[in-house]
Specification:
Layout lengths: L1 H35 L1 H8 L4 H31 L2 H10 L5 H34 L7 H32 L3 H24 L6 E3 L4 H13 L6 E4 L10 E4 L6 E5 H6 L2 H16 L2 H23 L3 H5 L8 H18 L1 H23 L1 H14 L8 H7 L5 H16 L14
Parallel strand pairs: 2-4
Antiparallel strand pairs: 1-2, 3-4
Length: 430
């Protein structure tokens, strides 16, 4: 059993230590490179206070590392002190069905995680984000979001857990049934999240009959795209960060622009950001990501199915053999780090899709607006433009900002070069 404990600690603790060290290396590398290329940041990104960007990155990473260490410490303490085992034993003695016991266990675990995250979320919102002029959220709104988010998490996670546990008890090949459920749910969320869940937190105002709508329609026309659902979201109620996104498929697809993005960018910059987002639909990146997620879920459920049948998984912390949910809990803890370590595979594909989207945006709206938009997004969000290469491999699904700007500028230069048939002065060739 000692070997299994060593395996558990190596995976769970070792993975977190690896990523913690990588985060520290990334911050130091980014700070060193930013100081060396401070002129580039001022001239290209328009960042006058480079030190402030570095301070923001250090504050965010430091808080994240503290939260990870605290969460991991509580998890290990709860497991090795016998607290989790006592909870499982108590649930088995309630007389509830294994299904209800499992749902109760999942609800308790989720509530514990939510409560543990409260001080870190509060500090992030009202200290870190406030210090760097990003926070616009009131304490009342934070409480509302927290309570609503907790209820939604309990309903969604609890419902999925109940379904999977029912499969475990009643379906011979339950990993296949569980996989199909989760994949189907993921596809359904592409429609339900923007239409049902997101409006619970933000207001979405249709963009109609305005200069902004004319600009959006121009992008649609150039891109050969049809979409009536274009919305501006009141992101400024909570944060000064800016973004835009495209979601859904078929008749349910919609474009969402943060009001912070609309307010901070020029019209041509908004257009090129929109063109980038539309490219993910035009190039079928969304169904490709769904297919990739389906493959990942297949691996996860195959691993869970194997581990749930191993006696040592239950013996590791003294869980009763009939408490299938407890064995699955340990299995999830073992599979999670493997998924984290395999992130470069998914990021590799994502990076390729992002380059395709940048190419489409430049071809549709031009290189200069794209370069300016990337610079504005990086500056407005105080992004670290110089990630460490190894950190980038594990964490970045977008190319670094300097690489993206260089890429689009090179595209613009190539487009501006006179061809053999059409010299630069516009005169016919001899």
């Amino acid at each position: 059993m000692l070997a299994y404990h060593a395996l558990f600690v190596a995976l769970v603790v070792g993975t977190e230590l690896f990523f913690a060290g990588l985060s520290i290396v990334n911050v130091r590398y980014g700070a060193r490179t930013a100081r060396a290329r401070s002129d580039w940041m001022r001239e290209t990104l328009g960042v006058e206070d480079v030190a402030s960007v570095l301070d923001y990155q250090r504050a965010r990473v430091g808080l994240s590392l503290l939260e990870t260490a605290t969460t991991l410490g509580f998890l290990l303490l709860a497991l090795y002190s016998g607290v989790v085992t006592d909870v499982v034993v108590a649930l088995t003695e309630t007389g509830l069905s294994p299904l209800l016991q499992g749902v109760a266990f999942v609800v308790l675990a989720l509530l514990a995680a939510r409560l543990l995250g409260v001080p870190f979320d509060l500090y992030s919102t009202f200290v870190v984000e406030e210090a760097f002029d990003f926070n616009n959220q009131s304490p009342t709104l934070w409480v509302r979001d927290y309570l609503l988010g907790t209820v939604l998490s309990l309903v969604i996670v609890g419902g999925l857990a109940a379904a999977v546990l029912w499969f475990v008890e009643n379906v011979q090949y339950w990993p296949v049934a569980g996989w199909a459920l989760v994949v189907g749910f993921s596809v359904a969320m592409l429609v339900l999240k923007p239409r049902v869940i997101d409006p619970l937190f933000n207001e979405f105002t249709p963009v109609e009959e305005s200069d902004l709508r004319d600009a959006v329609d121009e992008v649609f026309e150039r891109a050969g795209f049809r979409c009536e659902q274009v919305y501006e979201m009141d992101a400024s109620r909570r944060s000064g960060h800016s973004n835009a996104y495209f979601v859904g498929f078929g008749r349910t697809k919609r474009v969402v622009l943060y009001d912070t993005l609309v307010e901070s960018m020029e019209v041509d910059e908004i257009q090129v950001v929109l063109a980038h987002e539309l490219a993910h639909w035009k190039r079928k990146h969304i169904p490709k990501f769904v297919a990739l997620a389906a493959v990942q879920f297949a691996v996860v459920f195959a691993a869970l199915g194997y581990l749930a049948g191993q006696p040592w998984v239950f013996d590791l912390f003294g869980f009763p053999a009939e408490a299938t949910y407890a064995g699955l809990f340990v299995a999830v803890l073992l599979v999670g780090p493997v998924l984290q370590l395999s992130a470069p595979l998914q990021n590799y594909l994502s990076l390729a899709y992002e380059r395709e989207a940048d190419t489409f945006a430049v071809e549709t709206m031009g290189a200069d607006p794209m370069a300016n938009a990337l610079a504005a997004l990086a500056a407005d969000n105080m992004t670290n433009p110089f990630p460490h290469p190894l950190y980038e491999t594990f964490h970045h699904d977008h190319p670094p900002i300097p690489e993206r700007i260089r890429y689009v500028q090179e595209m613009g230069e190539e487009a501006a070069e006179p061809t053999e048939e059409t010299p630069g002065d516009g005169t016919p060739s001899a």
